[in-house]
Design a protein that fits this description.
Elements: E1 16-20, E2 23-26, E3 31-34, H1 37-40, H2 49-61, H3 73-83, E4 92-96, H4 99-114, E5 118-122, H5 131-135, H6 141-144, E6 154-157, H7 162-165, H8 169-186, E7 193-198, E8 201-202, E9 208-209, H9 212-225, E10 228-232, E11 256-259, E12 270-274, H10 276-279, H11 295-310, H12 313-334, E13 338-344, E14 347-352, H13 361-374, E15 376-377, E16 379-381, E17 387-390, H14 398-414
Parallel strand pairs: 3-15, 5-6, 5-7, 7-10, 10-11
Antiparallel strand pairs: 1-2, 2-3, 4-12, 8-9, 11-12, 13-14, 14-17, 16-17
Helix pairs in contact: 2-11, 3-11, 8-9, 12-14, 13-14
This protein binds pyridoxal-5'-phosphate (PLP).
Pyridoxal-5'-phosphate (PLP) binds near residues 39, 98, 100, 234 and 260.
Amino acid sequence: MATISPLLQRSSEVRAVRGDGVYLFDADDRRYLDFTAGIGVTSTGHCHPRVVEAIQRQAAQLIHGQYTTVLHPRLGELTTRLGALTPAGLDCFFYASAGTEAIEAALRLARQASGRPNVIVFHGSFHGRTIGSLSMTSSRVGLRAGLQPLMAGAVVSPFPDAFRYGWDDDTTVSFCLAELDFVFDTLSAPRETAAMFLEPVLGEGGYVPVPPAFAAGLRERCDRHGILLVADEIQTGIGRTGKFWGHEHLGVVPDVLVTAKGLASGMPLSAFAASEELMSQGWPGSQGGTYGGNAVACAAALATLDVIEDEQLVERAAELGPRLIGGLRGLATEHSAIGDVRGLGLMVATVFTGDLGAPDADTARRVQVAAERAGLLLLTCGTAGNVVRWIPPLVVTAEQIDDALDMFALALQKADVR
Ligand code: PLP
């Protein structure tokens, strides 16, 4: 009998047959509050009627207008639309399907445009699973296991995770910037460094917001040495953190911005933006792909951006994030196993720790399973797997957040969490 690869590890037992807003339903019509949003993808909720309508309309007109063969209108419309949302000057776009492809494309551009071989990435980052982006990924050793040695030239510098170090933000930032300078002195000289890739909130690595002072330190060094600053906004973009782009929290503007996930409500679409001047320094014809900028995906993205604007979903993420964080901090006062609650907008984490603050992945997993039994879908993340993350669709209501908190409280009880 044919089977699905056992190497795909699934976090829940749910067999979803239908989605509606913040809910998923199984074949028995059991309802689950979906605070995973397809790993931060279905920001407009499952099957938003306007997105469905746009997909259906486009599918009846043109499904595949292959973009190195012909130009289709949705691609131009989306480019204009995104150009109004990206920082001034970042108005030239390349499209692909998966996040990892857009990261690879940004990496290709950075190397070609600068003529420099190396990139600096930060410890705990996740940039993708294909060889280039995987070489830049250090969020979990299992991702790299059995594949090393990977692409040369990806140099890892410490990420300012104050909770992990047990220091305050200022001390952590000073240490990490000093270590970055040490990397310049010992591993990758500035003139050999094409780019630094940064997630504004460390995602798979544990939902750790970047302190603005660290981003300012990177921007200053990039400017000083002619290094490109690339914001990997694949998870943080399109309103997730309560601002349209995560880097807006940091007070710095990147040279390259990569987006995917929330962009098209679940249709596969990714992109990166740079200035036209930078983009034209790449090798002609070096970017492409069979499915990139798919017409149906672009139509879904246009409808997604309409919904985000009309339903004020960025504002909603900013408003409801503190409600979620507040509720979780309340639970943390009752459960000492919750060592930290952190996040920005609707990208929130509960960190499970044991004795002396050691990561406790077992408890995180038990709570996740108990939450599923209570009807709430959550994901874990973190370099040690001890972080339960909260990424509801941005259409979530205050009542649904309260429901989720009640289910989580029950799950903590059922899982015997101290
Ligand atoms: N970069 C970040 C920050 C991500 O969160 C992800 C996916 O989780 C990726 C890159 C890779 O995207 P994809 O899984 O679509 O290849």
